[in-house]
Design a protein that fits this description.
Helix 3 (212-219) packs across helix 5 (257-273) and helix 4 packs across helix 5 (257-273). The protein has nine helices and 25 strands. The strands form six sheets. The chain has an eight-stranded mixed β-sheet, covered by helices on one side. With 523 residues, the chain is an alpha/beta fold. The protein is globular and about 75 Å long. Residues 112-325 form the Apiosidase-like catalytic domain. Pfam families: Apiosidase (PF13204).
Length: 523
Amino acid sequence: MPTPSDQEVLSSGTETAYRGGCHQLEFSGEHVVTAKQPALPLNLTFTLPSGARISAKAFARNDGKAIARCYLPESGEWRWEAKSSAGKGVASGRIQVEDSSLPGKLRVSLKDTRQFQYDSASPYLHIGDTAEALLSPDQENWQAYIDQAAQAGFTKIRVRLPETATSAANFYDSNRKHLNLAFWDEVETRLLYALERFPGIQFQLDLFAQDRDELERFEEGDPLTHLVVNYACERLSPLANVHWCLATEIDPAKDSAVTLQALSRLGKTIYEQAPWHSLITCGQPRYASFLFDREKWCGLTSLASLGQVDGSFVPENAKLTRKPIVLDADRAEHALAPLQPRFYFRRLFWGLLLSGAHPTYHGLNTSGQGHGHKAGIYGYYDACHAGRLQSGAHDLLHIHTFIRETCETLEGWVADDSISGNKPLLCKSMRSAESDQCIVYIANPDAADGHSGKNGEGFYSDQNASASDIFTTFNLELPFAIGKAKWFSPTRGEWNGEVEITKASTIFLTPEPGDWILWIQRG
């Protein structure tokens, strides 16, 4: 789970820097700028210890200083040189980068393209949350939200840069002549607050959301729109906790060819301009197939569905992509609400993780446009204590505990529901690449029949299901005959006894009513 760091994640000047962090250089004098000149004709070249050379540009802050940043994926001595647009040398220097325990940026796993890892090669467990308006300056509870997100075990937060879902006007001044640098300063303040305290939490920044006009301006070559894209890349991409979502609700049946072309061009621009290789994706409507899998810039598959407690959408989409499959939207505690949110989200997360995908929680309406008891940016536990939420994410911490105390990572693991009888609404199962370990989630819902529906039509048993108040028996067909099985409570995060296995086909009885996890190892 995310923990505070004792190493600097943002260094500057001649300070010692740390691998996995970010280093920045400040320029003043003739390079001081104002909002009228928000991007500098100042070009930086960083030479890494490996000999690789990376180009970047300086950007302006609202205090008039020019800043250049680099993400630090390598330890050793870095060299840098700054030149004007005319090629005249401005300054040069060195950065000493020490090795560190910082996790660094989010990457696709080098061992398993369905999974993620941190740049440090340490494992990453995707426990997502949704806080769309978190970066809006008028949201005052942002610190409590971030602190309690870490406390609850979230490792990824979906946030939006535009002030509303359909308008990115806040990127600019009121006359749309210059960038609104005060806004970008505030965005940075919040991202740095999280990075300095909880460097393991990743932020998926939604760049244009549903603002189609801004996308079309980009495709038409509007200078200010292109400037804001370049500016955001130079300022935010070097931060180790940032990756990108280009836009949301992109629907090929409704969106124009211009919009789709703009997204393809936008993804390519960010991929080429931001040299630190932040992951990039794009959001589709519920049930839509992913559009951009074959684009070079695309790093992960972002989908939306409903009632995916059985993970049925995963094999359907796994045929279309080798990238990580992320379910960024399903039910929320108030929108398309389940009757028993705590059981629902516990079941959703275990079901998706054991299907080889990556789940996301959604509590309050965080759009910034909702009002009342069910809306707003609040710390998760504050919202639960106030009765705004019904503890839907209370058991996600226990997923961290289980993974940490067993396999450490799901890299290389294979979803295999045949182990548990191909009844994913009742049991989900997964095995290691060597088939010497298995994980089985026994959902044991009190309602499973009639779980149907396509494109939101029909009845979903997950809407009303609770964990059954009776014991349940189930049969497993294991890939080995001799071994040991241990019971884990997904609600208490505790182990509860073990049994010896003497044959591959084995009948089990849960230790108590409700849902359970079974960790099985070959003897």
